[in-house]
Amino acid sequence: MQDRAEAGPVDPDEDDRAFDNGRSLISWSGHGTVTGMGSWRWAIPVTSAAPDAVQALPAFLPSPDEVVCMTDVNGAIPATRSAITRTGRFTVSGPERMRTEQLQNGTARPRPGTPAHAAVTDAFSRPQQRIVLARAPVGAELDRAVEAIDEDLAAHRYYPPTGR
User: Record's superkingdom (predicted)?
Assistant: First the structure.
């Protein structure tokens, strides 16, 4: 990959639009061959001061209007078929239909069910770009990623169970 980046066919994606604008066949985020399934999870403390609102949230969030609103902001694939039909991007003729097809045909992969997912993703995405685009040493960059993950895990006491 380093040689290809140096030769020129790899777009550095400085505007975060290389894949969407057709300058790159593969997205840095992995949407070229596999779609990530699922998004961030919501958690509500047991000691919430508004228990009625807490009980209403699970019925409110998956409504088609709210799913479309959320995915318009975060760029994710709508989580329901009814919301997909309300967007132009993910419908059968939409520019991001491949992601919807991957969800429907079983190609999508679930994201890890861990609160450390964000730290792990960040720890590996940064070195990936330095390795490919700046020709940084692979071993040293991956060691840095492992150190970052270990630091996050230790800072959060290895994400102990919450008591459920």
Answer: Bacteria
